Amino acid sequence: MLTIERFVCNMFGENTYVISDESGHCLIIDCGALYPEERNALTQYIRSKSLTPVSLLTTHGHLDHNFGNAFICEQYGLHVMLHADDEQLITNLPQQAAATVGMTWDETDSVGKYLRDGDEIILGKYKFEVIHTPGHTPGGAIYYCADERVAFTGDTLFRLSVGRTDFPGGSWEQLQNSLQVISKRIDPRTTLLTGHGESTTMEFEIQNNPYMKSAKI
């Protein structure tokens, strides 16, 4: 059984997740930890549970989901993995910082691996499928563990909402297509752990999310 801990981080209220299994290994997804207290909370949790981080993933290349990448590399020697189509975003985080929040920020780190649709991330006996979901960004991705019926949706899909498509590289047409894809590939009983806000389920979103209805699901 997976254990999932959520940390709400930075000025954007971004959700960072630590996912661990029975072996004591863990994944970190969307490390947005920016402030010292957020980073301390993350490392203290990992230490208190005697966890060993084995992979750092991000659902997309926007700054708020990647503030903590260099910190995680320094602490645990992990380099972030993400879909290849967000290469331009992840390699230009300082420019994002200047453009979006007017801050000088240069805690960048190299990418460990670029992922593709259908790749699998392994955590012990558990497999997380990479589902490419462009729209919010070109390389947006969901990490889906079918056996545990849990998916980390980043900013592709929220409770009763979806990610914005008016940023550079965004596309409402692509996002509509991505919503159709995940409605077919993800079990309706799956819990969706989102990049901002509270969790939801695939079934609830199919039935109630107006954006999914407009995508003709």
Helix and strand arrangement:
Elements lengths: L2 E7 L4 E7 L4 E5 L6 H13 L3 E6 L11 H8 L3 E4 L3 H4 L2 H9 L9 E5 L4 E4 L2 E7 L8 E5 L4 E5 L2 E2 L2 E2 L9 H14 L5 E4 L5 E2 H7 L1 H5 L3
Parallel strand pairs: 3-4, 4-5, 5-6, 10-13
Antiparallel strand pairs: 1-2, 2-3, 7-8, 8-9, 9-10, 11-12, 13-14
Primary descriptors:
single chain; 217 residues; alpha/beta; Metallo-beta-lactamase, Chain A; six-stranded mixed β-sheet; 7 helices; 30% strand
Can you summarize this structure?
This protein has 217 residues and is of the alpha/beta class. It has helices at residues 36-48, 69-76, 87-90, 93-101, 172-185, 202-208, 210-214; strands spanning 3-9, 14-20, 25-29, 52-57, 80-83, 111-115, 120-123, 126-132, 141-145, 150-154, 157-158, 161-162, 191-194, 200-201.
